[in-house]
Amino acid sequence: MSGANLGVVEGAMRSIEKVHTYIGHGMDDVIDVSLDLAEAESDSNQLAELQQVMLDYAKMEQDLRVFTQAVDNVKTQIRHADPNDVPDMEKLLDAQLKDLEKQNSDDPEILQRHEKVKELKEKLWECQNPGENMPSQATEQTLGEDEDFVMTQAEIVTKCPITQQEMKDPVKNKLCSHNYEREAITAMLKNRRSMKCPVSGCSNNRHVQNKDLEDNKDLKKYIERKNRMAAKNKRPKKGSK
Questions:
Q1: What is the pLDDT of residues 187-221, one digit of tens each?
Q2: For a tag site, which of 111, 126, 167, 191 has the least CB within 10 Å?
Q3: What's the whole-model pTM score?
Q4: What is the DSSP string of the chain?
């Protein structure tokens, strides 16, 4: 394969990376819309359809990962091939795809273990059953050594370590991942020449700076949803006296 052809392949791979990013955005949108429907107590069929959309996204991501790996393998073979006897790229790619597809089972359980699929299930449970542990957390068998750990509702800290009040506009310290109320941490930084993370026992020894703080939009949305559900549960049910 010539250098020019390799350049074309590299360009195509960059496009695939963009598609992968779009899939990630689509998964996040599915979670947001599903939670909105759950809060509105919409038809369960709509939620089921969105869960299937999430599985479709997971399958698309899996297919992209397989194709990307196949292309990388072919590029490596081409680069190490005899310049006078360069193999046919299409045949190599076809062989690689068939081999990788055999290794990547179509078992639906694999898609069910996708990080975003699990996140959707977890958040829907939290929304529909506030304060209760998801049953599968206690009964589900270990799914693999590299299984991602998903925080439960009880483990998500929503109080500011400075004010000890529920946060409304949380910002995250990129150095240690602790969260603070924006107004509180900003005031502390203005009044002190230097300060370390105010969370007791934090292992980060570097001083907190404004450049290390970033919006924690996910936590903010979580807090807003939790408060809406709490307010909703306090309302008297229809028919009650």
A1: 999 888 788 998 888 888 899 999 999 999 988 98
A2: 191
A3: 0.54
A4: --HHHHHHHHHHHHHHHHHHHHHHHHHHHHHHHHHHHHHTT--HHHHHHHHHHHHHHHHHHHHHHHHHHHHHHHHHHHHTS-TTSPPPHHHHHHHHHHHHHHHS---HHHHHTSHHHHHHHHHHHHHHSTT---HHHHHPPP--TTPPP---GGG---B-TTT-SB-SSEEEETTT--EEEHHHHHHHHHH-S-----STT----SPP-GGGEEE-HHHHHHHHHHHHHHHHHHSPPTT--
